[in-house]
Amino acid sequence: MIESMLFNPQVAPANNGTLVPSPYKNNLIKPVKPLVSTAQTYKKQPAKETSQPAPAFPVTPALVSAKITATPAVPEASPVGTTTAATKTVQELRSPVKLLRELFDRNQFGRTLLGNPDDFVSFSRPTQEATDAYDLSVVQAIRHNDVERLRSMLREGKSFNACNRFGESLIHMVCRRGNIEIAAFLVQEACVDVDVRDDFGRTPMHDACWTSTPNVSIMDLLVNSVSPEMLLAEDVRGHTPFDYARKEHYEIWYQYLSGKEPDLQRRISTYGSMR
């Protein structure tokens, strides 16, 4: 067979060792052995017999009692029409997002804002100067809560209207970290722009709500520094700042907005009359 292949390159071995026409010219193809199924060659080996039987595990009354005790009890289903404590808590959860919309809806200028708040909110775009001012020294001072170092930088002429290439500003970072002292320094002393967004559309208010512990002081600082419609500003997914709040913090934010309503109504009317 090999000799025939050497002199006739137009044939190739089939699966059973015979020669069939080959699509490859001038190629020497060695014959292959016929494929043999593994199932045909495998023979199950009989299990080895052991001379000693497996020891029987003694079942004692104490063991039976322990097994019965360890079996978890199945909770009884609640009767139809009743409300459990957990369900009642979810039903009574008061949303700050809903309250805020109701608060704006009670104001004639606020109702206009509810249609599309981004039509009335202006945001500062990051400049080359802002990205250049975002350096390691200022970031480290903020992370170490070193307000005296920040004041020293301010006296030296350092600009704190700084952001990284993703548009995240220093005030974004501070609001997310929840340090009221640094936040107050940036807003009241360094006079940074608070009406800023990152490339995801998040404002500092989004970051102030996006914390493990509610920080009402920082939110109050932001609310008093910008126009009230910033509270309705949406990110690229359509989420407002209080959509970022954890549900276990809803009641805290709800009470904050409830107590803030007279001031917010006044600010909504003031800013609305200026347009």
Task: Walk me through what this model shows.
- With 275 residues, the chain is mainly α.
- It has helices at 2-7, 38-41, 61-70, 85-91, 96-105, 108-115, 128-133, 136-143, 147-155, 170-177, 180-189, 204-209, 216-223, 250-273; strands at 11-13, 19-21.
- A two-stranded antiparallel sheet has the order 1-2.
- The N and C termini lie far apart (97 Å).
Radius of gyration: 37 Å
Largest sheet: 2 strands, antiparallel
The class by helix and strand makeup works out as mainly alpha
- The H/E string reads HEEHHHHHHHHHHHHH
CATH architectural designation of the largest domain: Alpha Horseshoe
Distance between the termini: 97 Å
Whole-number count of domains: 2
Helix segment tally: 14
Question: Judging from the principal axes of the Cα atoms, what is the shape?
Answer: globular
**Mean model confidence by pLDDT:** 76
Give the beta-strand count: 2
CATH superfamily descriptor of the largest domain: Ankyrin repeat-containing domain
Regions with little confidence, pLDDT below 50 for 5+ residues: 1-15, 22-45, 54-88
CATH C-level name of the largest domain: Mainly Alpha
Proportion in helices: 40-55%
CATH fold-level topology of the largest domain: Serine Threonine Protein Phosphatase 5, Tetratricopeptide repeat
Question: Can you list the strand order of the major beta sheet?
Answer: 1-2
Beta-strand content bin: under 5%
